[in-house]
Amino acid sequence: MQAPIAVGVDGSDAGYLAVHWAAETAAQRGQELRILHGLDLDATRAVVGSYDLLIPSVVENLRRRGAHTVQSARAVALDVDPALRVATEVSSDNPSRLLLGAAATACMMVLGASGNRLAGAHFGSTLLAVTRHAPGVVVVVRGACDESRIRRGGPVVVGVDGSLSSADVLAAAFEEASMRHVELIAVHTWSDVHIGHFAGLAPAAAPNPESDESPCAILGERLVGWQEKYPGVVVTTRLYFDGPADRLAELSRAAQLVVVGSRGRGGFTSLLLGSTSSFLVQHAHCPVMVVHPGSP
Description:
CATH class of the largest domain: Alpha Beta
Low-confidence stretches: 116-123, 194-212, 264-272
Mean pLDDT: 81
Radius of gyration: 20 Å
Strand content: 15-25%
CATH architecture of the largest domain: 3-Layer(aba) Sandwich
Number of domains: 2
Helix content: 40-55%
Structural class: alpha/beta
Number of strands: 11
Order of helices and strands: EHEHHHEHEEHEEHEHHHEHEHE
């Protein structure tokens, strides 16, 4: 827990909301907060040409705006806790590369998204790139761009599948629930698809509840040991037949955090988010923590 919490900002309201959430989390846990902003001078050079970029006023204006962005973010963080340790960095690098590099040494990388749209077209592509490929833990802070509406009550919800990485997801979820002193709701669905749309097939496809591969058996197996390690965390289990993305999104309406893995069953390693995590990053009603395999 000595590693810092890092947050990427782009000057959007959603980015500042992410700073507020990250600052609250860092203050509660006694960690440093790193605020990062990438200027992406290479992209600017491609647009205006190398000659124009050499004009001091162009470069100075970009750096001035970047400095203003991180200083505004720093003010948001210190408003949460004046004693919070805050470091800022304005880099000429591409935002995605900057944040991916910082994620390797941070305990979590925090980014903002607003409504059903990612925070700005440019930063939206950065958000997806970081959420898909960053090592460790990425938190996407979703909701109205109003710090007073950050949900501080409610349970932590975790999606549990049958993948090998589910241990990392459960470790993160139990830790978050323990630190927040709230209930943990563990959700498992038997199928990743909406079998309800094919009602005629559902009875024949239904799992045997006594099978080792039944939802109850899989969820019970995954929870073994964690409740003993975190005796103060009250765990409620939810089993559903299908639709993990919709189920978790609905539970996110009352949760303060949803924790999921970066891939579901059978995902392509290091290429894409699983369908459930990808859906939640864009549609959940509270912050979403995406846990990549091997996260500490």
